[in-house]
Amino acid sequence: MPLTKAIIVPGNGAGDVERCNWYGWAKKQINKIPDMTCLLRNMPDPVTARESIWLPFMQEELQCDEETVIIGHSSGAAAAMRYAETHKVFGLILVGAYTSDLGDENERESGYFSRPWEWEQMRRNVGHIVQFGSTDDPFLPWKEQQAVAEGLGAELHKYTERGHFQNTQFPELIDAVRKLRTAA
């Protein structure tokens, strides 16, 4: 199936996602790619980002499917990975992905980290996996980001000065979407 849709799943606590980090900018850039549509919505339960709320929203409201690349940032990356355990999607682009609750109560309450990751199942359900990570991320240890890349066999883009990718533009992300579009 061709890649026709990108869905940006933001990190928790993003507030108005159109004006947060690179999300709104990326949506505009992706919508300029011929035959592509990008969706970006304020998520329900935006602070705790519970799996039990976000995954049904991704399926029913955002309609993530086999023609979709899910672009997940931070807790949105955790949601994208859990979604891919049980749903086929065209691709994942993970930004600031991690594997544990990091000892944080809010992360623990989200539900994403209560069981082992099903890496093999995700690889079966996803055609293309790209990951962006930075060794200077103030929230995520590099070893957790590396564990995601290894578990998924992701095409890893490793940086040393991007922190948690909270800048207002992210041209490398748009390049990755364009590359996936041509791979379709």
UniProtKB/TrEMBL annotation:
SUPFAM superfamilies: alpha/beta-Hydrolases
Domain of life: Eukaryota
Lineage of origin: Eukaryota, Metazoa, Chordata, Craniata, Vertebrata
Organism: Coregonus suidteri
Protein name in the entry: Hydrolase RBBP9
Pfam families in the cross-refs: Ser_hydrolase
InterPro entries: AB_hydrolase_fold, RBBP9/YdeN
Any one GO MF annotation of this record: hydrolase activity
